[in-house]
């Protein structure tokens, strides 16, 4: 028991320090772990919720495709920036989109599965009872389902009530019992959610209420199908990130860089944070969004790089491997931005990072059994976030920090624009 506690402590410490995902941090600390299972379901882990969910279900059904190739088939990386301001709790949140069509779950699922040649059914049921019946039918037949519940209502992330209805990410429902549903959320242990809570979570967000995807593969895609999916995904990525949208394409990073230092735009950071209220929360959301230690998988440039390496072999285009190396460098730029936003040298921020890692590690390593650790860590985390917001409200001029962040975001924009131009030439 002591050895297990020491391992968990070392993994959490590494996650807090580096911003790595649980899987990556554990691999560095303890080496490759044995595959965990719950009955017939084997936990595959994963980095990004959407691509990991598909890869896990395909593996369970004997049609395994690597997560990087699933991610690439869906169009690879994306870009997006939104700063939300909420009056009900005086908070500010930065939303960063890192996956192609990150704002459209159903569209991304459709094109990803279509390119992989995986037959599927999508169900949208307005009523809670009918949605529950549909899910039960699939699970009782041994078919795992990809669902998209609200995180707050799921409960295992132990979020505050202020985040009720903020949405969530895809997870796999793989079996049920009389009391609830068992989920796989990229971890190594089952997450059991009471049925009433689970049904409420699925129905909470109107734009994707009760959405459910059932995959029905005939077998693993052949090499020709995977090669075509990789090429289509690469071309989709290039087209998407070459668009002019400053909300959902690469120009979003350029706009964000400008808003960090602009003094006139109403959504510019010097205006929004003139009173410095909510600044710590915004900085934390940058760190959580860009680093894999957060709930969504991080900036995904390393996952994309792995996909490019696989595509280089599938398509016999060695230049893609060179692009993979460049995107790993860009992953480093995102890491440096996150460190600038929430540096561990600030004691308050260091504690917030430690608590964020503690919650994530407990969920990933122990599932429902990690609740007794995750719940108090989350309670302390949200209290620490509130205290940091109050502390920064009394601090000095944030202008130098905003300028430093702006310079880093600008460098990322230029690096990604050049990398996408190179990919365009390689996929012509």
From TrEMBL:
Every copy of the Butirosin biosynthesis protein H N-terminal domain together lies at 48-185
InterPro entries, from UniProt?
BtrH_N (IPR026935), DUF4872 (IPR032369)
Domain (DUF4872) spans 215-348
Name the UniProt record assigns to this protein: Uncharacterized protein DUF4872
